[in-house]
Amino acid sequence: MKLWLLRHARVLVETGICYGISDVPFDQLDTTVAAENFSKYPSQACAIWTSPSMRAFQLATSLKKIRPDLQNPSVDVRLREMNFGKWEMRAWNDIPKSEFEAWIADFSNYRFGGEESTQDVIDRVSDAMDHACSKNEAELIWITHAGVIRAVNFLINTNRQQKISTAAQWPTSAPSMGSWVSFDV
Fold first, then answer.
1. Structural domain of residue 51, as residue ranges?
2. What is the C-alpha separation between 55 and 18, in angstroms, rounded?
3. Number of domains in the chain
4. What pLDDT was estimated at residue 162?
5. How confident is the model over 161-176, as a mean pLDDT?
6. Residue 160 pLDDT > 90
7. CATH number of the domain that residue 16 is part of
8. Are the beta carbons of 171 and 157 closer than 8 angstroms?
């Protein structure tokens, strides 16, 4: 199956703010442009799964308007961004250095912000991938976030190894907002 991972378009949040799962304002024009740019992919009708965030759901809705042959977007909470808990909507620079050090020291299990660990994200994304593969579809679109895309990348590059040991294993790149990548899973 070819899994298309489309990252939500530009958000209207001050640079340097940790917003994770927060439902933040997004740029509607950039969302429409992202949908138009992606609309030639995939070449056949398929399902759209979207994160519950408005920035992702609106992109799914915009894409469906351009590509009526695609299935109606289906919200899947497993595609939401990492929950940074008490650090949500705080400036990254205001988060104590000790928090970053603790996260790096136990990258798999430390709940940065108190809510969700990197391993929690990997586990829910792996579950979503298993569910997607069980559908026996040729292609599938996920409209999601950088953290989810990095988790898919980690799982693909480790042959679906589901445990991360160190921060060095975590992919550092993800498509820019409104861009995409695809993987054969």
1. 2-184
2. 15
3. 1
4. 80
5. 94
6. no
7. 3.40.50.1240
8. yes
The two beta strands, 90-91 and 17-18, are antiparallel
- pLDDT of 159 > 90? The answer is no
pLDDT at 161: 80
Separation CA 80–CA 27 (nearest Å): 19
Q: Give the position of tokens 């949500």.
A: 88
How much is the average pLDDT of 133-143? 96
Beta bridge partners of 144: 7
> 3-state SS of the chain?
CEEEEEECCCECCCCCEECCCCCCCECHHHHHHHHHHHCCCCCCCCEEEECCCHHHHHHHHHHHHHCCCCCCCEECHHHCCCCCHHHCCEEHHHCCHHHHHHHHHCCCCCCCCCCCCHHHHHHHHHHHHHHHHHCCCCEEEEEECHHHHHHHHHHHHCCCCCCCCCHHHCCCCCCCCCCEEEEEC
Percent of the chain whose pLDDT exceeds 70: 100
| Residues pairing with 39 in the sheet | none
The answer to which of 3-17, 18-32, 117-131, 156-170 has the lowest mean pLDDT is: 156-170
Mean pLDDT of the chain: 97
Residues 17, 77, 44: CA angle, nearest 5 degrees: 105
Distance, in Å, from the CA atom of 33 to the CA atom of 120, rounded to the nearest integer, reads 32
pTM: 0.96
